Amino acid sequence: MSKTKQISLNAFDMNCVSHLSPGLWRYPGDCSLKYKDIEYWQNIARIAEQGLFDAVFIADVLGVYDVYRGNDLGALRAAQQLPINDPLSLATIGAAVTKNVGFGITAGVFFEHPYPFARRLSTLDHLTKGRIGWNIVTGYLPSANKNMGAKELPHDERYDVAEEYMEVIYKLLEGSWEDDAVILDRESGDFANPYKVHHIGHHGKYYDVPGIHLCEPSIQRTPVLFQAGNSPRGRAFSAKHAEAMFIAPPLQYAKTAVAQIRQELIKAGRDPYSAKIYLLATIITDESESLAQAKYKDLLKYAHKEGALVVNSGWLGVDLSKYKLDEPLDKIQSNAMLGKVEAMSNSTIDGQRAWTLGDLLKLSGIGAPQAPRIIGSPKQVADTLQDIIAQTDADGFNLSYATTPGTFEDVVRYVVPELQKRDAYKHEYAKGSLRNKLFGKGDRLDSTHIGSQYRVGGALSTIDDYTDTGRPRPAE
Questions:
Q1: Three-class secondary structure of residue 231 per DSSP
Q2: Where exactly are the transmembrane stretches of this chain (predicted)?
Q3: 72-114 pLDDT per residue, tens
Q4: Which domains does the chain possess?
């Protein structure tokens, strides 16, 4: 890989107090406690756009991290992704003060029926002028299912449900309204030609959606599709649907993880580079290496140990309070985030031994423990970012923060200009929608993407306008 490959960056955030760095809300100058304020999110969006980031990527969970000790006390003490507010409104809040940066919003397929959710996606795409992305998740916290009154499904069956959910979404967003359905005939008063707005006629195992989509087509119709599953079943799902993939393996496993995704894309009949792959990373930087290292040591003083145990227990699906500090974490069986379990099981510390709870705690506190923390001067950070991209064949990074907005401001101030000097980072945004900015091929799903096949006349179109709909057929 060329050292001058252009690197993509996202700001990775969450609508809560503590995302991946529990306890850092106490750090002087950190603004995490303002997560409830419109002005806070508008500032994040402006910083991301100043840095020419692809998107502000908003994570989410609809549940509580209560695997640790079997209760929610630790999560509440550490404010570990709790309290947590809804992520979708952040896209319109940020779009109101920016023109180019995208907004990747996380939403789980189990927690909202696809019929109203399709309307929410179209609304967001209209209001952001085509800058919305959707991070498709199947969920991993048992507490979410309990509070929705739903049974916890086996890991792979969650993806079976997600497959049908996507089918309904594609039919509504791509196949219900034809491109020329809106006619705006001022003489007759007809807004739309009703015979170009189709009932999708979906009758499946999990969902029954016979009718039309409630919204006229937006710029992208289907938002840019993000996905973060890195289990074997998750990779297959991503390869079929995702246009951007977010993974968080240990650095020594990242090359393998990226190669697995590229191979899955080929197996799915897609170009292996038709999707962007972002690695998770946290950057601590300053004018010099000594200042960056001093900043990192200062940040560590505020890390919350129990919060780290809470979030890692939730990710791995096991109660880490039951492990001794020197006990290996290589035989975990769970129904949670199998990609993290697989990565943990297939990586080692110093190339010699399996991870222990003690190792996990040493690397927790700032960012995710298995993902790289890159600490140094702008030149050192830029060198490392380019090396990682060259070694792994990834496309860029989802940047988690130690402090907010401080970590993002530091990257924009110090690292982006250094990468631009090397022609390893863009100097301006491309025009158009988020999809066109990322791929330069227009606003709509590519014709090779499965979602495009649900358009009227497509191979997977199943419109049903006249059976049990009460619709008269058009006059000949």
A1: coil
A2: none
A3: 999 999 999 999 999 999 999 999 999 999 999 999 998 899 9
A4: 8-304+371-454 (3.20.20.30), 305-364 (no CATH)
